[in-house]
Amino acid sequence: MKFFNREREINEILSILEREPNLIYFIYGSINSGKTALIKQIIENKLNDEYKVFYINFRTYLISEKREFIEAIFTTKKDDFFEKIIDKSEVLNLITKGAKILTGIPIPEVEFDKLFEEKINDAFQYLNSLLLEVKKSGKQPILIFDELQMIRDVVLNGQKYLLKELFQFLVSLTKEQHLCHVFCLSSDSLFIEYVYNAGELEDRADYILVDDFDKETALKFMDFLAEEILGKKLSDEDKEIIYSYVGGKPILIINVMGKLKHKNLKEILDLMLKEEVS
């Protein structure tokens, strides 16, 4: 399926990537507004091989303490399977010659085990040296933390220092060294505000809003999907009914349109309403 109507946000992020790294960027918006889809569209389809992306999705981990926090950052996956890395030469190959997008930060298994015995800053220094190697190879590193709010339990469990040290390190990567672009995605604007204050990010961070579609765009999206998925047009009445149920949330509109291949609209929307109430 083609990507739909995020040209403004795409162009804004591409413009940031063309410049020297200088700020941490928070990409925020309501749940299911399309933040992850947007960043994946950019890194998978809009960037050339001059970039090396390190993508970390905190949603795939239960994070409530230092060990889990480190595991989430330094565990690498390939095709949804955990990947064991034997030595530093393998790491260097991954970051200089391997795929454009890496899920997690590659680290030899023996070094990974040491991280839990050392200070958190030692883990960040390893990451810093790895990003320097990427830069030395002629590529521009990009670090992406998706579902940032999933690390809030680290703070609730009395380890607030981890959050502060993480963002002070990210400030070093951007504002001080101009080494790496950093993007943090979250639907929790209150947690972003907390991070901004706890991490002392004044003049060191900026925000990119990825909002739900307005009504006009949502109706156009339905027209687009009807042609793509169903091979036909929807009536204005059906589009109005869908919008009254799901609003401008792209993923919910996609779900409805996908189900219309096999079910009638009333059945789909009644089931969605029951699931929401239960």
UniProtKB/TrEMBL annotation:
Signal peptide: none annotated. The lineage of its organism: Archaea, Methanobacteriati, Methanobacteriota, Methanomada group, Methanococci. This is ATPase. GO terms for molecular function: ATP binding. It comes from the Archaea. Residues 21-214 form the AAA+ ATPase domain. It comes from Methanocaldococcus vulcanius (strain ATCC 700851 / DSM 12094 / M7) (Methanococcus vulcanius). Gene3D superfamilies: P-loop containing nucleotide triphosphate hydrolases. Transmembrane segments: none annotated. InterPro entries: AAA+_ATPase (IPR003593), ATPase_dom (IPR011579), P-loop_NTPase (IPR027417). Pfam families: ATPase_2.
